[in-house]
Each structure stands twice: as structure tokens, then as C-alpha cells.
User: Fold this.
Amino acid sequence: MESFTSWIANSAANDLALALLSSVPGSPPILQTVHLLSIVAIMASALMIDLRILGLAVPSQDIHEMAGRLRFWALGGVIGVFSSGIWFVLARPNRYFNNPVFQIKFTLLLPALLCSYWIFRMAVRNPNFFGTHLWRARLLAMLSLLLWVAVVLAGRWIAYSEYLFWPA
Assistant:
């Protein structure tokens, strides 16, 4: 991991990210705002579909139609989160890659993305899946909710990891 973070720290991408964050007025709060709004788009999309599958929200909405409308918000959120967050990681790779909370976040992020992708894919491509395999769909929806909440909590705690993990 050390060689990877050193490689990033000595790269042109690091120089560009540092220049953007330090010399473009307002760029850190603007990028953080884009990051947070993108998280909201992902969470709202996943939450609505998951709660609908669990039968806890909007029972009048067809899952297939809802997924068709919300998948673009979720995809836009993923693009926004990546395109805004990458600048902070590139600017200070040691702060992130050596942070156990950041590692936890990304360990949870991949299964969360895969869960949501699969739910949206099934809802759009096979609308009958949720009727014929309801218990599987509900289990996946519960897993998706738990993973997304954990990802958001871990993301929020990245800045405060020194309170969780005291330096040796």
C-alpha cells in the first residue's frame, strides 16, 4: 500500500488535485457539496426501491416503473460521488489509503453497489422477479439498506478516525 500511495503522491494527478483544491477559490466546499448531493441521489434511489420491495413505502408504485425512473438518479449519483471525491483522495493519498475507516467504507461500497445494481437490473429487465422471488428480493433489499447506511456512516467517520483508532 505504501508504494501505491507514494506513487500517487508523486504523480501529476496529485499536483493537479492539490492545485485545484488550494488555488481555485471555493473548490473544496463546492466539491464536498457535489459529493454530498450525489450521496443523497444514490441513497434516495436505493432507499425508495428497497423500501418498496420490503412493502414499507409507496405500495401503489410499480417496482419496474420506479426503478426505470430512479436508476438514472442512482447512476448520476455514482458518477457525481466519484468525480467529486477523487480530487480529495488524489490530493492526500496517505490520509485516505492509510485510514482504516476509508478502507472499511470501500470494503462495504463494492457490495452495496453490486446489490443496488442487481436490484435495479432485475426490476428493469425482469419485472416479475419481485413477485416470484419475493423473499430473495426482500433479503437483498434489506442487505442493500444496511450496506448503504454503513457506507454513509463510514464515509462520515473518515475525518474522525483518530477518535476511533488511536495512533500507535
